[in-house]
Write a structure and sequence with these properties.
The structure holds two protein chains of two kinds. Chain A has 15 helices and 21 strands. By secondary structure, chain A is α+β, with helices and mostly antiparallel strands. Among the domains of chain A are: 79 residues, 2-Layer Sandwich (Uridine Diphospho-n-acetylenolpyruvylglucosamine Reductase, domain 2), CATH 3.30.43; 205 residues, Vanillyl-alcohol Oxidase, Chain A, domain 3. In chain A, 48% of the residues are buried. Chain B is α/β, with parallel strands linked by helices. Chain B has two domains: 212 residues, Rossmann fold, CATH 3.40.50; 29 residues. In chain B, 28% of the residues lie in helices and 25% in strands. In chain B, the strands form three sheets. Chain B has a nine-stranded mixed beta sheet, sandwiched between helices. A two-stranded antiparallel sheet of chain B has the order 2-5. A two-stranded antiparallel ribbon of chain B has the order 3-4. The radius of gyration of chain B is 21 Å and the shape is globular. Classes of the chains: A alpha+beta, B alpha/beta. At the A-B interface, strand 14, helix 10, strand 17 and helix 11 of A face helix 5 of B.
Chain lengths: 551, 266
Amino acid sequence: MKNVSSNIFNSEKIAIKISFNDIRSIHGKTKILTDYPTYLMDESKLNGTADWLFFPKSEAEIVSILEFLQKNKIRTYVSAARTGIVGACVPNSGSVLSTEKMNKIFGFGFDKNKNYYFIRVEPGITLNEINDKLIKKELDNIPELTPDAIKNFKEIKDPFHYPVDPTEMSATIGGTVATNASGARTLKYGPTRQWIKGLRVLLSSGDILDIQRGECFASKEGSFIINKSNGGKLQFKIPNFIFNTSVKNAAGIYSKPNMDLIDLFIGSEGILGIITQIDIWIIEKNPLISNVLFFNSEEDSISFVELIRNNRIISPEFIEFFSYEALNLMKNVQNKDPGSINMPQIPIDAKSAIFFDVPYSEEKIDIIFSKINKITKKCNTSLSNSWSGYENREITRLKHFRQALPENVNAIIATRKQQFPQIHKLGTDICIPEKYFRNMMEYYHTVVRNANLDYVIFGHIGENHVHVNILPKNMEELRLGEEIYEKFAKKAVEYGGSISAEHGIGKIKTDYLKIMYSQKDLDEMRLIKKSLDPLLVLNYGNIFNFDVETE
Amino acid sequence: MKIIVTIKQVPEANKVAVNPETGTLIREGVESILNPFCEYALDMAVKLKIQNPDLNVEIIVISMGPPQAKYALIRCLELGADKAYLLSDRAFSGSDVWATALTLKEGILKKIGNFDLILAGKQAIDGDTAQVPAELAENLGIPHIYYGFDIKIDKKKINVKKETEKGYKVIEVRLPALVTISKGPSTIRRLPSMKDMIEARKKPLEIINAKSLNMDENKIGLNGSFTQVVKIFSPPTKKAGEIIDGNDSINAAEKLFMFLKEKLIV
């Protein structure tokens, strides 16, 4: 069925029904808690509870599960790799619907309008699996969605990839679409949203929206109309606020005048529908050189970032930051066990470090590094004060160094948890407009130092988005840390930033969302949720607090 | 003092699979790297250079391979080699270990001349033959020691710690000599700096063809090779053997008996 008008969308209904009894499921709170405990948490270590655990293998199976859930008034929480860190997939009650068995590639094509190849996948496939197939060009037995797409693709010598890199590449594509994941390489490639060509979304009613980007836009008044498969009409209005895209932002539902229907679902943390199929654009993978450059002061490293960020010769793919505190933590790990992070000795006098990727070609390496050399002199360091690598194994090694930092933070927290089980890491995800970034950094250091708490700062400095991780040692420090966290969130909003640049809101950050949005904004978001999922079956409690029930 | 390091570019081993039908390596999407054991040999050379500043050590790397093997040599220059030679020519292709060793010998004699020490990796991780270094040493008429993991220079001699099944032994040898290296001096691989990257590309890297070595064409490439690879397959995985400690003889006998019983031998 073709969609007739710009803000009207025709839904589909699944043709073949599958009996609920034929779908793999686990029933029983205790059984799930005992045998499947990992399905009750994510990387935030927030714990939940569920009576049912489903492993659907197809969209049709999810339709049957949804029928069962609606009939029995059971809520469901969509879960996949559980790499999220805001508890979005953690069930409050009801059921967990794991998309891990839905990990197939459905097709491959060439998008003439965009001049990009695209791949059609199920939500449960991981980013690693997608990239592995693309790099090796292993696409045998996959249907061609446009004539000769695979044949032509194989003739191109360069390797391809899906360029969004949320650091954790074992994340599934479905999860990253639901949270509009970004990560380090957003500096060059933007967040997930920009790479999504099409989505199939299953509403809780069983209606399927097969949306291609550019097909359906909100009307002038901001409304969408969905023609349901049973003949009914579903009309709703998008919120009046304009979603802040001037900074990296994953807080709240996307909204802007004349927005594309597809964008409503990207980043909506699963509360509006279940994603069952995704078309993603892919591009050539540039050869890169990864570098870690050490500095004598944090100010120098920030100056370096400001000077390379928009430099067209250097053209960095990402820029990451390690604070003095972060380097010290890594040095301690290295002193205890030099092999554990598999890196040469971190320079003793390093006060901060910048990790950045630049394009690699034998012809240009001299020009690029000469340019960087000039900049390092202005920033009181030198090219010899660095690590550099371009072989894949070296790039992976440097990436592991970056990942080793949060992993070691988590390990420290895990040890402290043994004494105080309630303790958890307090990790900010704040993005600030560039002109306030130095002020914000000063604010971070001053506030945490005054409270005398352990902390590290690291992350995507290229986009003025660093993570402050506070490591409380006891319950009093946890309380203090939480106060500080709220201060940071308020300051961020004051500066026009986002309280959640990439992790999303999930269940952990709902209180902070209230700092960023007015009551009216929140109510408008809730109204969409109620229109698309009237019985509040899907991922209830994500983004909004529980007071939605009382309205 | 001149130290020569012979090196090879290889496909990254853990990524290579064998096509069971054709018996050839599937190399799509697999990156070429400097053979890890060759990197250990280079690390050893760099260590000796640092340890003996008065000897004025010059590290020269040499390889035979296709044109793209120059990237493995550039890698060596980044990691501390001073000069590099690549013996590259269509006429060399198809060389077996014998032809390779002969070609390397000619490259060394004609391009480098006198030298004090040759270091090589104990084997390449693609072919795993471990033949070339010994054949090179024999052809050059110098002694060779395999499986070295530490070297001390003592004027015109070196002391080499050589790995054995149970530990190591120390062998003294007069220079010039060849040592293959089994384990690097550091457990953590070095990483060049950005400065090393720039400097490496300014160091001399010469590509040498068959003609300039002036070798008999029947002694190089396929013509000069006595052996030929017929088929490649992954060896079946074998469990490591078990050694029973004989100091406690009663316990050892019991363990041996149980082992034999388990295998239904007794």
